[in-house]
Amino acid sequence: MQTLFALERPLRMTAAENLTLEQCIALKLMLDIRFFDTGNGPQPVLQLPPALATGLAALQPGGIILFRENLASVGQITGLTAQIRQCLSPEALIAVDEEGGRVTRLPRDQVTSFSGNMALAACPADERMPLARAMGAAQGEELFALGINVNFAPTLDVNSNPQNPVINVRAFSDDPSLVAALGAEVVGGLQSAGVAAAVKHFPGHGDTSLDSHTHLPCVLRDRQSAESVDLAPFAEVISTASPAMVMTAHIQYPALDADTLPDTDIVRPATLSRRIITGLLRERLHFSGVVISDALDMRAISELISPQWAVIECFRAGVDIALMPLLLRDESSLQQLQDIVSAAADAVRAGELDELQLRLSAQRILALRSAHSCAATQSAALERIGCEAHLALQQRIAEHSITLVHGVEPA
């Protein structure tokens, strides 16, 4: 693989103004390493193959997202996260989707596996909030011990469409106030344990009947309904719980931005909308943390535009981190990532992207990495993973969430 640019050492907490343009842009990428092909077909990455380790060290992305294929056992996970940090930085962002319930990545037979958001909302009213805080803290302790310092949770989508194929039980409730209250508690619990919480999917994926993994959904609420339903939990949690990150939604929301992509009649997805990301999230809701896109290789984006264009457009919108800009599966895709960085740098030099805003974005990422730095050891993980207190909490939430849907309670 030809290396277009490389670093002599992993990135440390260096001020963004001292980084090259290419280093700043690479810092704004988070990559999926589920599989890698070293010549015998794609294999799950349980430890870094030499070619992948070399490519990551040359590129220096800001972080890595791990999936179930990367997470086999406590010892293996701590070894992999240590390898990643050796390639990138002790402060690298290593993320996972560990919402609980149907979205659980860690091995259920070795870690505490919680019931999920809707189960929390089904618990008795006087116990919901402390249970949500305790669940977030327990998740955070186990993730941090494994060397994972970002959790893409909690979901703040309001479960307002019964035909929604992707949110449903991942939402706390169809009540925006309850979504906000429980979401704030989970954020507080996660971040008390040193793990950055990433609330999602802004500006709200609850009223869709399509899955953005396979289609581009459109929310047809008017502006007033958007404010009172979808945006309300984000506004409340941002102001009261200060989540470290917000993840965007690949949804069209014409009431918030009806502009179209250049030379098309396609309404801009929120991820690519400056009105939504900068105008609404940054300027109106005063979010000062790190904004990360949902995965850019999802079909809602990847079937519309190229990976290079998607990265440039989400940066133009005000997104800090482009998540999974393409499938990283072999050495050729490592080269494609280098090409994306070069294309974004060219866009800056051509005046299509603002260099000052890009460097301010990189500085936000560096600050996040510093604030949530962790170095896991297997002994620390073994002490916290699946401990008696966490398993008892798991059982308590599961038992309290049992709900009579219809019929008569037994005498």
| Assembly level | single chain
- Helix count from the secondary structure assignment: 14
Biggest β-sheet strands, sense, barrel = 8 strands, parallel
SSE pattern? HEEEHEHEHHEHEHEHEHHEHHHH
| Strand arrangement across the biggest beta sheet | 9-8-7-6-5-4-1-10
The rounded distance between the terminal residues' Cα atoms is: 71 Å
Query: What percent strand?
Result: 5-15%
Q: What is the residue-mean pLDDT, rounded to a whole number? A: 92
Total number of beta strands:
10
Shape: globular
Radius of gyration: 21 Å
What class, by secondary structure content? alpha/beta
Q: Classify the helix fraction into a percent range.
A: 40-55%
Low-confidence stretches: 1-9
Question: Could you characterize the architecture of this molecule?
Answer:
This protein is an alpha/beta fold. The protein contains 14 helices and 10 strands. The model is unreliable at 1-9 (pLDDT under 50).
Topology, please?
Layout: H1 21-27, E1 29-32, E2 35-37, E3 42-44, H2 50-59, E4 63-65, H3 74-87, E5 93-96, H4 117-121, H5 128-146, E6 150-151, H6 176-192, E7 196-202, H7 223-241, E8 245-248, H8 274-284, E9 290-292, H9 299-302, H10 307-317, E10 322-323, H11 331-349, H12 355-371, H13 378-384, H14 388-400
Parallel strand pairs: 1-4, 1-10, 4-5, 5-6, 6-7, 7-8, 8-9
Antiparallel strand pairs: 2-3
Helix pairs in contact: 1-11, 1-12, 2-11, 5-6, 5-13, 5-14, 6-7, 10-11
